[in-house]
Amino acid sequence: MSTINNKAVVNLEACDRTIEVTSNEVTTKPIKLRLEKKQDCDIVLVGGRVLFTVEIENQCSTDVHDLTFKDKLHDCLSYVEGSFKVNDVPHHPEFEDDTLKYEIEELKSCETLTITFEVIVTDDCCDGCHIEIERSAPPTIAQPHYNDNHVRGTGVRYATVYVEFPDGTVGSGTVNNGGNWSIDALYRLQYGQTIRAWQVEPDKKPSQIVTVTV
């Protein structure tokens, strides 16, 4: 059966260069979709962040299933781990070969689904105009126990810590003034489950991912 690629285009100004981002697409069976991509700023320096918002509207009179959303990032852009949300709920997309991929199980008739994620403009964009972007320090994770309903640890004050749970969903929290953080688990933790976490300090790259097993 044939498919349709629905694309959206945005433009960024970085270091006097225009970046045209055209890679957003949703691959579907032949149905009518509206795909629109927006950004929260038009001009950005190397090291700056951009929030992308993608709206996917089902303009069909019937529900559709098994849609595939993809975004191959431009060479100048780097995905911010943990920033991907679907209808404001954190999710963890597949990310390989600079391409974000997320499977949409169902989109009802006349329904609009909103995807948001952040990118950092990298120094691949231009020469002589960038600032070096330092990587955030990784957080520490306190050993979780069977039947715990939270994950906690330490980090850099006021940084954001992201925790990926075993089912792929992502929660986030802010490190408090004392250097501690705690994020509620979505369910009671079980033996053998693996928790992944990373930290993002203001104006820095995301840290390396750290893991712990219950």
Structural summary, described in words:
The chain is mainly beta. The protein folds into two domains: 4-121, Immunoglobulin-like, CATH 2.60.40; 140-213, Immunoglobulins (Immunoglobulin-like, Sandwich). 0% of the residues lie in helices and 52% in strands. Strands 3, 4, 6, 7, 8 and 11 form a six-stranded antiparallel sheet that branches. Strand 7 and strand 8 (89-90) form a beta hairpin. The chain starts with a strand and ends with a strand. The model is unreliable at 127-131 (pLDDT under 50).
Brief summary:
This protein is mainly β and 214 residues long. The chain has strands at residues 4-14, 17-28, 33-39, 49-58, 64-72, 77-79, 85-86, 89-90, 94-96, 99-107, 112-121, 140-141, 150-154, 160-164, 170-174, 180-184, 194-200, 210-213.
Write the layout of secondary structure elements.
Blueprint: E1 4-14, E2 17-28, E3 33-39, E4 49-58, E5 64-72, E6 77-79, E7 85-86, E8 89-90, E9 94-96, E10 99-107, E11 112-121, E12 140-141, E13 150-154, E14 160-164, E15 170-174, E16 180-184, E17 194-200, E18 210-213
Antiparallel strand pairs: 1-2, 2-5, 3-4, 4-11, 5-10, 6-11, 7-8, 7-11, 9-10, 12-13, 13-16, 14-15, 14-17, 17-18
